[in-house]
Structure formats: structure tokens, C-alpha cells
Amino acid sequence: MVAEAIHGLSLRSNKQFCSQNCAAIPGGLAESLLFGTKKGVYTGSVDSPGIFEQVNGGTLFLDEVNSLDYSIQAKLLRALETKKIHRLGSDKEISLDFRVVAATNEDPFKCMESGKIRSDLFYRLSTFVLEIPPLRERKEDIPLLTEHFIQAHNEASSKQFSGVSDEVLAVFKQYSWPGNVRELKNVIESSAIFAKSSTIQISDLPYYITKSRSIENKEHREKNSANFLPASTSAPSYLIPDVIEQLIRDGATYKEAMDRFENLYLDSCQRNCSNQTHLAHILGISRQSLINKLKKHNLRPCDGTRDG
After folding, report:
1. DSSP symbols for 82-125
2. Which pLDDT tens digit goes with each residue over 192-217?
3. Where are the domains of the chain?
């Protein structure tokens, strides 16, 4: 999307834009696909232009360029340096005018260290570098991207959608998106298949998205529940959900349950506070009210605060 935006805002916008995922090129076909072929170079071959010739005057986006074989990277470097190419099996040079935008799906410096990309090619490509942060680090883009993909779906399908529910958007913002923008696009397309209304709902999302949400919610609940427990290592090892279940089994009344929670909360807070005046301020109650509550629950005063 960024590469296409660069092309669309350039003086080449009225020329061809082509996007090629280098990782998807079958083994041994990269050279003929990129640079074309001469008739007779192999059985059944014909005179055929490659992608570079097809985008003459325009822009070629090479995604995952680090997936190209080293020998092809050398030919790509030469093409960038001379703006000339040779079709496979031909000694005739063809002069071209093109812009190349390239991307790696890994840290380019690690790619150079591991031998996945030639250093001379990287430095030739890195005239201008843009680092695109993963979707999980720019979640403010999610509503805009969601709307864009909904509109794209509406243009291509008779099944129309007005958008996604607020709950779905909240899930989208919570999810980590390991597959980045492509994954968001695919999730929307998948959800559109199962949606029964004009608004995509939680029940329409793929299972792994809602499962991830459930796991994150559980971890969040357990973390928050743990915050209510006393800081002492001698404190009980249960969580608030366990307390609730036990209270239900015991048939506790609402008042009894609230007393139990107040006991846990006060015990945890006062163990981590230096004096009662400070604790009362944090809790938003008077110091005398705090003293009364501590006595009610047979809790000791904060350390070093018996005199105030």
C-alpha cells in the first residue's frame, strides 16, 4: 500500500505499477520473470518481455526482495546501476526507465549478516528508507484500514456492509495482528462471508481472533485479581474468581461477599502503604473511617503508624 501510494503521488502515476512478491516466484524462474526471455533459449521459450520491460516508465515494487537468489540479486543490482537489462538468452541490452521500491520482511542488517541479501544491493536500494511499523504499533490506523477494506469489499461484491460493530473494532484494537495489514484484510473478507447483517459482529470473526481475545481477557482478569491480594508471601494463593466461586458455594449473602472483598482489598493496600494518613488519602476516605474499617476486619494498622 505504501509503495502504491509512492507511485500514485509521483510523476510516474500515469504509468504502470507492478507489485511482485519475490518469495512467491518458483525456483529457477526469477530471471525470466523479471528480465524476460529470448526465443529458443530453452524448449518452448518465446520472445517475452519481463516485468521490468512491462513497467517501463513506471514503478516496480519488489516485496521480500531478500528471498531472491544471490545470482538474481547481482543481476538486479546491475539493472539498477545501468537502467539496462538483458533478456534471458540474449546479449542485446534494453535501456529502460523505471523506479524500484523494495521491501524486506526481516531486519535488512540481519539479512546481510546471514547472507540473505547482498550488502551492495541493499545499499543501492537504500537511497531512501522508510520503516513501516507493524500494525500492533499503530493501532490508530485500524479504524481507517477497516473502513477501507469494507469499502473495497462493497465495490467487489453484491453483499454490502456498513461497517463493523463497536465491539469488533475494540477486538481489532486489542489483537496483536502478527500478519499485519494483510491479516486484517483477510479477517474482514472472511467475516463478510459469514455475516448475517449489514454490520460485522463478534460472532462473524474467525475463531482464532475471538480465542485470542478470550485468552487476553483471562490474563487481564487474573492480573487485576492478583492486585487485590496481600503482598505478603504468607497471603493466600487464590484469586478473586476463586473467592467468588467459594462464596457462591457457601451461599454467602451480598453483604457477606462485600465484607470479604473489603477485607482482601484493605489488607492488600495497607501492607503496601507506609502510614494510615497516606492510605486514607489513596482510598479517598477519612483517616478515622480507615481506622474503623481496619478494626472491623481485625487488620493491623500500617507499619509505623500507630501514633498517626
Report:
1. HSEEE-BT---EEE---EEEE--SS-HHHHHHHTSS-HHHHHHH
2. 988 989 999 998 998 888 775 554 55
3. 2-125, 135-222, 229-296
